[in-house]
Specification:
The complex is a heterodimer of chains A (83) and B (139).
Chain A: E1 4-10, H1 12-18, E2 22-27, H2 33-41, E3 54-57, E4 60-62, E5 74-77
Parallel strand pairs in A: 1-5
Antiparallel strand pairs in A: 1-2, 3-4, 3-5
Chain B: E1 3-7, H1 13-20, E2 27-34, E3 38-39, E4 42-51, H2 53-70, E5 75-81, E6 83-86, E7 90-98, H3 101-118, E8 121-127, E9 133-134
Parallel strand pairs in B: 1-5
Antiparallel strand pairs in B: 2-7, 3-4, 4-6, 4-8, 5-7, 8-9
Helix pairs in contact in B: 2-3
Classes of the chains: A alpha+beta (83), B alpha+beta (139).
Amino acid sequence: MSAATATVLVFARVADLLGAERVSVLLPPAPTAGDVLAALRALPGGEGIPASTRIAVNHCFVALDAAIGTSDEIAAIPPVAGG
Amino acid sequence: MSHSAIVEEPLDPARLMGLVTADARGGVVTFVGCVRDRNAGRPVLALDYRAYRPMAERELALIVAEAEAQWADVAVAVEHRLGALRIGDAAVVVVAAHPHRRAAFAACEFVLEQLKRRVPIWKREHYADGPAEWVEVAL
């Protein structure tokens, strides 16, 4: 597998930092959720992404070592504030 | 019998209670979370709730299913509101009904605490004394 781009949905503070609600990132071969977070942090403004930001794949939270498919619906979930 | 939803309209606690009360469920606990006029000492004018809606709906339904698995015979109705809310508006309503009070209280608190940890909803507060900010909640 070679490097590939993936679209990531971003929300709230992360969307403000990156200036968009969906961004494209370049991922390494056999990417993980942790690679997605690292790629987001490398974007302009991305250094301010909160440490506790989680990754969701197809509407489910996943661990940082979980494998990512570039056709999955990938989202970065900053600390939530419902209730 | 249980119910969960993310909505944009004003919340109606009585309607949600009506969804889960039944002759066998004598304990009904209703929690209503309303917009406070201050947060961390700062005066709040209004706020906006946003969500990653398909995931928020799925996660909320999952939490209700977990409550049903943990407390046999419980019925839960929960709704969270999105959009622009004013001080005093209800942002979230959780109703848990069970044959006995302890399970009703416990299930209601469980659903609310899990919602606050897991459901992808964010709020942006507008302050009297500075620019609007996304809130990070200390659990």
